[in-house]
Amino acid sequence: MTTLRTFALLAATVLARVEAIEAADWDAAQSSAEAALAKMSQQDKVNIVTGVGWDKGPCVGNTPAISSINYPQLCLQDGPLGIRFGTGSTAFTPGVQAASTWDTELIRQRGEFLGEEAKGCGIHVMLGPVAGALGKIPHGGRNWEGFGVDPYLAGIAMAETIEGMQSAGVQACAKHYIVNEQELNRETISSDVDDRTMHELYLWPFADAVHANVASVMCSYNKINGSWACENDHAQNGLLKKELGFKGFVVSDWNAQHTTDGSANNGMDMTMPGSDYNGNNVLWGPQLTSAINSNRVSGERVDDMAKRILTTWYLLGQDAGYPAINIDASVQGNHKENVRAVARDGIVLLKNDEGVLPLQKPGKIALVGSAAVVNPDGANACVDKGCNTGALGMGWGSGSVNYPYFVSPHDALKARAEADGATVSLHSSDQTNGVAGVASDADVAIVVITANSGEGYITVEDHAGDRNHLDPWHNGNELVKAVAAANKNTIVVVHSTGPIILEEILATEGVKAIVWAGLPSQENGNALVDILYGLASPSGKLVYSIAKSAEDYGTSVVSGGEDDFSEGLFVDYRHFDNADIEPRYEFGFGLSYTEFTYEELSVTSTVTAGPASGETIPGGAADLWETVATVTASVTNSGEVEGAEVAQLYITLPADTPSTPPKQLRGFAKLKLEPGASGVATFNLRRRDLSYWDASAAQWVVPAGEFTVSVGASSRDVRLTGSLTA
Ligand SMILES: *[C@@H]1O[C@H](CO)[C@@H](O)[C@H](O)[C@H]1NC(C)=O
What we know:
CATH topology of the largest domain: TIM Barrel
Distance between the termini: 47 Å
Main location: secreted
CATH architecture of the largest domain: Alpha-Beta Barrel
Largest sheet: 6 strands, mixed
Signal peptide: 1-23
GO cellular component, one term: extracellular region
CATH class of the largest domain: Alpha Beta
Structural class: alpha/beta
Domain Fibronectin type III-like: 645-715
Radius of gyration: 25 Å
Family: Belongs to the glycosyl hydrolase 3 family.
Number of domains: 3
Helix content: 25-40%
Bound molecules: 2-acetamido-2-deoxy-beta-D-glucopyranose
């Protein structure tokens, strides 16, 4: 015991972990910030809130050092899955893959490792994680950077990631705030969202981020109700700082600031990069000084900006012993193990006819598709991943990073086949010519197809960020048909940033399995082989619905200047359920190599109807975060092999609640079970999980009446139901 303790103490010292942040820590950091503020000149204050300009420092965002208080040149760096432009760092899996695991331990570890690498590079503020876009539009270019389309799941993933990152000592940045749902016209479009939809969908995961003590929030490019997100008083001062009690700072997205006074007076605290990309148009700096001097912006407001920025620096302990900035530092450690685990456990098995998977040591394997091999020009050949050539591991844009190495499907499959004395014949193109020759005499044919998307400053194969359609790229349907025509044991592997329409593939005879491999980053092939060969049973579940047609989603990229969010709360499964449209594969769906049975639902509740109350803590009214009901269910692995099940809990609010989605995710638990073993899935429901936003009262309210509790294997595969009453 003593030895164990000593070791734990030693490990804690070496990693210099920041303990879980509490209210007293914010108070202490604010006191330190006030003391420092007292020593700063007005010029110092203007400097600490104004970036030095694009490409004028070592990081994507920098503010100047303030010598009077020993404050360093602050380094802000992309992004949500690793260190952008770094050469010694890990390419972690995108957020969407992490969410697809539904494994809070893996998600948290991913956050810790991200934070460790950022700190190792001397980065003070790491620009992630992402909860906006939430993903209401399946074509949305940047959906893959976030954690899927459900706010509850995204919120849990935000909190785990932020706590993980910040425990390593780096400041996290929750972005993009808010309702930034598409790339087309992203810098001009106005997202006009009603108050209830704002609270129940888009603000929800940001509330989790604030509750997890996130240090900073990035305001987005778009307008909200006609005013820029970074100049929107209601969004920044009202919702974020007042209602959610956010004590950190709001940093602009890069070039998202439009006026000197409007941004300052409406809640923005730091401008980045500080000028436009040509070094012109500096809206703070000297212009902020004149605004203060002519009383258009108050001195108190600028003090508040500086205090918020200093507070989080102290909060994370960055004022002592923080490493020097070196974006190229060698910081990977053993972090690739997390990449492989997330890549693997985020894989969703959609179809598996006649038990074609897992593979039983086939002697002859055909592998088809340009996405089966690394980009012939190199895994990092395209700047910011702006191409769809070769195997896909992440989307493109500022949320991408360099791969330190890349294992393609072919690399991993060949290694595995060699160990078995098997052969792999490769057709590494998307042309159907020549497919038959490779596929026809193989025991099994594996065809890899893709769909890609990214940030709008890069256009890839005619897709300007958002996808133009939801079909596979490179004529993937035709490629699959050619393979399946030649081989009756065809396995389709999909690497994609979001849903694609699978109807043609499903209608193709010979397609026995579909493996939704998502975005596995640098461990692409290894994760796939782990699943194909049954080294692990698939345990990922979809974090968006796969529809039968693109129209079924009811949302698509909006052209023109305004998105009125008329679908309201009814996005993805909330819409499919409400409109009674059958998806092909529903939100939360995923097969396994084993089977799970559910029994013994138990519900205990102390919840009372009525509005939320209590003081405002980070995340909103205190009692919103209290557990008011607990649901348990017993889950048994009733199949033959080890596996993991993501048990999900959906809540149906009382029938007379104003227009509400039929079911909403409000709990999940991933249980790893040996064959025959049982475990208990425990779902703790907080007051917020049983509330809706009453827009007229401007409050979260638990409605009176009977709530239905549905527990099961997906949003439609309900195995047990119960109820509770408020
Ligand atoms: C936008 O306008 C709607 C409708 O008036 C309102 O409910 C909402 O609170 C406004 N949102 C913001 C961020 O101003």
